[in-house]
Write a structure and sequence with these properties.
The complex is a heterodimer of chains A (284) and B (331).
Chain A: H1 2-13, H2 16-30, H3 32-35, H4 73-109, H5 111-126, H6 129-140, H7 144-171, H8 174-181, H9 186-223, H10 234-241, H11 250-277, H12 279-282
Chain B: E1 7-20, E2 23-36, E3 40-44, H1 51-58, E4 67-76, E5 79-80, H2 86-92, E6 97-100, H3 104-107, H4 114-123, H5 130-143, H6 149-152, H7 162-175, E7 180-184, H8 192-209, E8 212-216, H9 220-226, E9 229-234, E10 237-243, H10 244-249, H11 254-261, H12 301-305, E11 310-314, E12 317-320
Parallel strand pairs in B: 3-8, 3-9, 6-7, 7-8
Antiparallel strand pairs in B: 1-2, 1-4, 4-5, 9-10, 10-12, 11-12
Helix pairs in contact in B: 4-5, 4-7, 5-7, 7-8
Classes of the chains: A mainly alpha (284), B alpha/beta (331).
Chain lengths: 284, 331
């Protein structure tokens, strides 16, 4: 009875605005071909540099205006969500998974294993993400895969470090000792007793890093080391609009705003998730 | 006193050392005791004398990689645990020897419900389906006197009081029907009224299952209430062991006597409680002779040269001190 009441309370506290924006983004990314009013790559020079619909000279045909080559900004934005979210999903699943596993191993095992893993983490974190991505872009060629790999290579270390710290505090608690007393193996203790205790930190890290990944991807595309044109990507759109910022503000501001919005809503969602996942905060 | 059951756990001349960067700490240095079915042996001594290390080495759970059993035997129903492999030990832990720790606040995993944690422990013993295990878990909670057990199964640890949590820990510890239960200061973190209830509960469990209990504490009140026999530990060794009453009435080792003297009494009003002068020896820098010699008020040259032998004093009562005369039971 009480649990029912509190779970209703949880849903009431769900950040509905953030959550619905996330849903809209995911739907847009998945169904981009159905939703986009135009092809994202179709050029139409007569229509170039149209302002958004609500401005003088804008039309309902191009809700968010068009770019230098007359491509529809809204359509490019929708397709761009695909790129951003795919990169985020791939990099976070791979990097987060590796980070979680190595962080738990390092924290639980301690000693030489811990030392070794953490020195690798330190080394990894000293490399600027952008530099690695640029190196990889040069050696592997540009593309979605390269970006995902570059971000994975960097991001696992952040996860590993924080997860390890959590594990260090969890493993000194008596229930871990008692699990040994009751005959659990080390592997089982890590999987069954430690993982659930660091999982909510991990989930929160995951959502907070979605923003990070989207920004890195945008930065790389902005620098020209990301997604090769003509595939639309938000960072590249910002970059393209830069030279026309005085006359056609929407070219940079619209994708820039989208990046900001994504980072913001995922951070808000992450905050809520942290509270929701902690049984102590959930049911008080 | 307990009816003499058969010996379940026997520890023979156990040496367990910790190899630290400051030197070898001889935490357990020649400990021997026997524990019978249905019996409670109190292991008392001040902090750092090796009580907990003794318990952990029985389970072969000394801190890794520093801790090592150097010598001796731990016989559980005749089988030597010291020579067992790690996977064989895993089948011993929880099923044949179990343990309760001091702090109920951290003894339960905060992210799982109490029910799933008891089920987890039961699963090690019984190969039943989840429903059957949940009924067993409910029964286990009822047996440790938790009110509304069916609802409590769904509760998280943070929703329970310390006393209730420690009951759950107790339920988990005996879920596998162990033959030996090691209780390491199980009531230290509980308040006094709850302590008594918990001790009564442990006694009831023991009466029902006839398990042998090794009760680690530094509270003589609890020893008097709980234990059939007492072993007093000092600096890694047992200095005196005997039936609780005999030992309380006439402690023979100067250390035991000094410990007893420092317990406040209701009847006598004293200005200042007597205390034992000095500090226990550093465990990695042990004196050659009797370890208590530097603090003992009866010390002589022989004490400083040689460790005293174990001297039988009365029925099941013995002490390691040069001053103690072997004597037949006085009464």
């Amino acid at each position: 009875m009480s649990t029912e009441a509190s779970s209703r309370g949880d849903l009431a506290r769900l950040p509905w605005i953030s959550f619905s924006i996330i849903v809209v983004l995911v739907v847009a990314a998945v169904f981009a071909p159905l939703l986009a009013p135009h092809s994202p790559t179709e050029q139409s020079l007569p229509d170039k540099l149209r302002p958004p619909a609500w401005q003088e000279g804008g039309s309902m045909k191009h809700l968010l205006g068009t770019d230098v080559l007359g491509r529809d900004v809204l359509s490019r934005l929708v397709y761009g969500a695909r790129v951003s979210l795919t990169v985020a999903a791939v990099a976070l699943i791979a990097g987060g998974g590796v980070g979680l596993a190595l962080g738990i191993l390092a924290g639980y095992t301690g000693g030489r294993v811990d030392n070794f893993i953490m020195r690798v983490v330190d080394a990894t974190l000293t490399f600027p993400t952008i530099l690695i991505a640029l190196l990889l872009a040069v050696s592997l060629g540009q593309g979605l895969g390269t970006i995902a790999i570059a971000i994975t290579v960097i991001i696992w270390a952040r996860f590993a470090r924080i997860v390890r710290g959590e594990v260090l505090s969890v493993k000194t608690r008596d229930f871990v000792a008692l699990a040994r007393v009751h005959g659990c193996s080390h592997l089982r203790i890590m999987a069954v007793h430690i993982v659930p205790n660091v999982l909510n930190t991990f989930m929160v890290l995951l959502t907070l890093h979605i923003g990070f990944v989207v920004i890195v991807e945008a930065t790389l595309s902005f620098l020209g080391a990301g997604i090769p044109p003509p595939t639309p990507s938000w960072g590249q759109m910002v970059s393209d609009g830069r030279s026309h910022i005085a006359s056609a503000w929407w070219l940079s501001v619209v994708p820039g705003g989208a990046i900001m919005l994504v980072v913001l809503v995922f951070n808000l969602f992450g905050d809520w998730l942290r509270d929701w996942l902690d049984p102590r905060l959930r049911q008080v | 006193m307990a009816s003499p059951g058969r010996v379940v756990l026997e520890v023979r001349d156990l040496h367990a050392y910790l190899y630290t960067r400051w030197g070898v700490v001889r935490a357990v240095d020649g400990v021997s005791f026997a524990l019978r079915e249905g019996e409670t042996l109190g292991l008392v001594g001040e902090s750092g004398c090796g009580k907990t290390m003794t318990a952990l080495s029985v389970l072969r759970l000394m801190p890794e990689p520093a801790g090592r059993i150097v010598q001796g035997q731990v016989l559980l129903e005749g089988e030597d645990l010291v020579t067992k492999s790690e996977s064989e030990m895993r089948r011993v832990r929880g099923r044949r020897i179990s343990m309760i720790l001091q702090d109920p606040q951290t003894s339960l995993n905060p992210v799982f419900t109490v029910g799933s944690q008891i089920v987890e422990a039961l699963r090690m013993r019984y190969a039943d389906g989840v429903d059957a295990l949940r009924r067993l878990a409910e029964e286990a909670l009822r047996r440790v006197k938790v009110a509304a057990p069916a609802e409590r199964l769904r509760a998280f640890p943070h929703q329970m009081s310390g006393g209730m949590k420690q009951r759950v820990v107790g339920a988990i510890a005996v879920a596998g029907e162990p033959r030996v239960l090691i209780a390491d200061e199980p009531t230290t973190a509980l308040d006094v009224t709850i302590q008594l209830q918990y001790l009564v509960l442990l006694k009831e469990i023991q009466a029902r299952t006839r398990l042998a209990m090794l009760f680690i504490t530094h509270d003589f009140g609890i020893v008097a209430r709980m234990c059939d026999r007492v072993a007093v530990m000092y600096a890694g060794r047992i200095v005196e062991t005997g039936p609780t009453r005999a030992l309380f009435r006439a402690p023979r080792h100067p250390y035991t006597a000094a410990l007893m003297a420092s317990v406040p009494r209701m009847e006598a009003s004293v200005e200042r409680l007597p205390s034992i002068e000095g500090q226990p020896p550093l465990l990695h820098h042990m004196p050659v002779g009797c370890r208590f010699a530097p603090r003992c008020s009866y010390v002589d040259d022989r004490c400083r040269r040689e460790y005293p032998p174990v001297v039988p004093i009365g029925p099941a009562h013995e002490a390691s001190c040069w001053r103690v005369e072997p004597s037949p039971p006085s009464r």
